[in-house]
Amino acid sequence: MVTSPTVTGPERAISTADGGFVLPPESRRDPATADAVLRPFRGPLLFRRRAGLRVDHGRLIVSGRFGERRRFSLTDEGKPYALADTLDDLAVVDRNGQAVVVTSRTCWDGDEAQKFAAAAGLWGYIGDDSERPPLRADGFRLRTGLLLEASAAWAFPAALLLFGVLQAMWRGWNHALSDRTAAAICIGLLVLVVLMVLSAWSERTIQRHHVEVIAGAIAVRNERGDLVDRIPVSRAGRMELDLGMTGPFNLDIVDGRGTPVDPNATDVHLGTDDLLDLAETTHLPLVFDPDKDPFLVVDKPSPVLNPPKDSPKCGLSMTAKDGVLVVSDHGRVLARYDLDGKPQSPAALVERIGGKGSNAILDGRGGALLTFPGDLWSRWELLSFATAAKLPFELRDGRRRAKPLELAPGAVTYHE
Q1: Max CA-CA distance within the chain?
Q2: What is the pLDDT of residues 363-389, one digit of tens each?
Q3: Residues in contact with 145: Cβ distance below 8 Å, sequence separation at least 6, in sequence order
Q4: How far is residue 219's CA from residue 231's CA, in Å, rounded to a whole number?
């Protein structure tokens, strides 16, 4: 249910035909003199490079991924002037609540969309977030091509897989199995193909940013090379990461209290080398934020790292209990550390990426108290244990040219 908001000033909210409202913009910017651009940050390569919305002196210019363009007037009566940001769609609507352009919400950043609306003098739209605004007769649907591109990426291997199944069944392979078993195998293979397509879709929907440090500031550019923001390094305390399963790292640049130093300092997507180069240049720690990991909501952090199941000869385990971290090998205690925050005590659990380096537990001075092979536990297992032990989980450069970790006095080096 939508209630009428209270608006002061000469301009007031206008009811739309679908039961929503359009609100006057806070900026009071006149669309007739505005010049603003909104670009997608997700989607296939062609869509990210070519698609966009632009307000240019009273006209809304919509560009598609194949170079197609549509123009709408923002100054004539009844023409579009409100931005609708719903759960699934992003649209520009007229005063009747009908969309002249609608596109998938997945590919656009909400904060950038609001800045675009303010700069362009577009009004705000309040309506049913679960409903897509109806497309006007002369409207334009800005298609992303996400599923089509992902399907094309796996079309050939999927066709080979299905051809192999059909060929095997044609030769009588199915006669050696029951009908139920043969059907289960076919369904399983079809599910595998669908998962392959979805994996390709997920990989292709994330933008890769490019960063460089210029005059004490981090310059963030999108894939088109446009400057997104300049973030002073002096205001940053650390770089927080979420536990992405595929694609580039999702990075937030925050201050010492964990607050983003700038609205554009969130959701910066970097590949491994770019991420490590940035950390090396700025000397900012790379820390995983457990609050951004959805798995820790379902599976609570574990205070125990059991010996890895896929390495039967390895008996290394760690336990954090009652303020003490105990490291054991096949039940024999190798080391015992107090988790009391002192300089000689554990201060961080570190995973080294970009190579085959060892992971480690560091003390407050940066020395390694314990080093162990980097392939024993998954990243999620390490994050879960570090969260339970109340230790920051950091990433460090593990490439060949990286400086090796310095060992603390009495350090334990574990090898399988």
Answers
A1: 81
A2: 999 999 999 998 899 888 898 899 999
A3: 43, 44, 46, 47, 65
A4: 7
